[in-house]
Amino acid sequence: AEWQQPPPPPYGQQQPPPPYGQQPPPAYGQQPPPPYGQQPPPYGQPAAPADNRKTFSILAYVGPLWLIGMFAGNEKNDPRVRFNVGQGMILTIVYVALYIVVGIISALIPRPNYFYGGGCAAYGVITSLLWLSVSAFMVIFALIGIMGVSKNQEKPLPIIGKFAFYK
Predict the structure, then answer these.
(1) CA-to-CA separations, 123 to 68, 108, 109, in angstroms, rounded
(2) Is the backbone of residue 125 left (phi > 0), alpha (psi -120 to 50) or beta?
């Protein structure tokens, strides 16, 4: 006969203790333990191997973490992972190139010299806005790529996506 679980006690009341020598009933919604000396039934089939394609595709847009999708596991040969790794790779290359360009521009702008006068008084504002715009570019384009992965779309990134060479 199948064991019937008693209903839970009314709200705010405790379950009465079991009679001496008996185990307490299982918590509400759980199966009772097997009788003494018997093994519990198996919990089902062994777990299937993890599908990391979406994870690797998302990581492709987070800086140099596209290397994980490029070299790790069987997913490296999956067309969708390869597409997103290519997009993440070109995004990282463009970000580094912009970083270098902004660094050169920042070095060329004359800094204010408070002892002798001269230089650009707005140096801090100009360089801060340049660095902020490069960082915003990276974040916005990474979010566009991650949103495409979450929607299972293979759309290249705007402007730079067509230059991806890893497919």
Answers:
(1) 39, 10, 7
(2) alpha
| Closest listed residue to residue 133, CA positions, set 93, 98, 159 | 98
pLDDT at 25: 67
Q: Name the pLDDT band for 110 (thresholds 50, 70, 90).
A: confident
Residue 75 DSSP class: G
Query: Hey, CA dihedral for 16, 18, 23, 29, is it positive or negative?
Result: negative
Residues 63, 92 contacting (CB under 8 angstroms): yes
Q: How confident is the model at residue 154 (pLDDT cuts 50, 70, 90)?
A: very high
| pLDDT on residue 34 | 67
Is the pLDDT assigned to residue 9 strictly greater than 90? no
CA 106 to chain centre: 33
> 143 phi and psi, to 5 degrees?
-65, -35
In contact, 100 and 93? CB cutoff 8 Å? no
Give me the phi and psi of 19, to 5 degrees please.
-60, 155
- Nearest residue to 145 via CA among 87, 99, 82, 67: 87
